[in-house]
Amino acid sequence: MRIGVVRFPGTNCDADVFQMVENSSHEPVWLWHQDRFDVKSVDSVIIPGGFSYGDYLRCGALASRSAVMKSVSEFAEQGRPVLGICNGFQILCESGLLPGVLLRNESVKFIDDWVELSVENGNEYFAKKIPVKKRFCLPIAHGEGRYFAPPEELKKIQDKGQVWLSYVKNPNGSLKDIAGLMNEKKNVFGLMPHPERAMQSWMGGTDGGLFL
Fold first, then answer.
1. Fewest CB within 10 A of the end CB: N or C in the chain?
2. Which CATH architecture has domain 2-210?
């Protein structure tokens, strides 16, 4: 499987994601922020974490208006799988590919820690090896990871089974403990934790190896 890895100025988890794809026996392909790409050239797309465009304006807001995201949107509209990790999750929300927004942590502090997670609703693309309600651990590193959506939107998200992952112990004040989300078609996914940082035992855990 060919997996496109998107790079923006300020992306700093791209090499880790590239390595995660290789370690999962897939072929990674770089996708640059200034370029459109042929949506038939890759089988899925991952938007890594970092500080795209220095997190100026709002996290992910400038990246969401880049040329590459026009192709990512077209790719997603065809029902093909897209995964956004941390800043990638923020970019997907700013692009309208996922509902809601990521706000500054309730503590107003940057959080760098490991968290316990639970799969709330399964899917056929990412982390499908982890059963529903199974608990696992991944690291987080973010200052704006608090998920928010208006009450009516939040109810719709829950009713349609779009909550993908939840925190067992909420670290940032996310509504309904949401750590990961899916769109209605369940082909676009965002999560704040970093699976690419939990691929080997020396990293502190291996649960990230279950994502691809």
1. N
2. 3-Layer(aba) Sandwich (3.40)
